[in-house]
Design goal:
With 92 residues, the protein is α+β, with helices and mostly antiparallel strands. It is built from three helices and three strands.
Length: 92
């Protein structure tokens, strides 16, 4: 499913993005990772990861986005783990 979604977003997402927006999408563990902008799509080595769980993988993407100048990052999920993970790192 992740591979299908990645291919779908690579093909269609650029049309709906604004000029300054970047969409980061990755397929299955260790597989293709893409950066999609208004100008097109390119593979991204820095987004590849070996995280099996999507909960932690979201934060890998958020960190890469922050390191590349993102000033707003929104992670939205009904999963409690997604809320608890960053809180646990703040306590260390």
């Amino acid at each position: 499913m992740a591979e299908y979604y990645t291919a779908y977003m690579a093909e269609r997402a650029a049309d709906s993005l604004k000029e300054q927006q970047t969409l980061c999408v990755s397929a299955a563990q260790g597989e293709m990772a893409l950066r999609v902008t208004k100008d097109g799509c390119s593979e991204s080595e820095c987004l590849k990861s070996n995280h099996e769980e999507g909960d932690t993988r979201m934060y890998v993407h958020a960190r890469v986005a922050a390191e590349n100048g993102a000033d707003h990052i929104v992670i939205s999920s009904p999963d409690t783990d997604v809320l608890v993970l960053p809180a646990s790192y703040q306590c260390k």
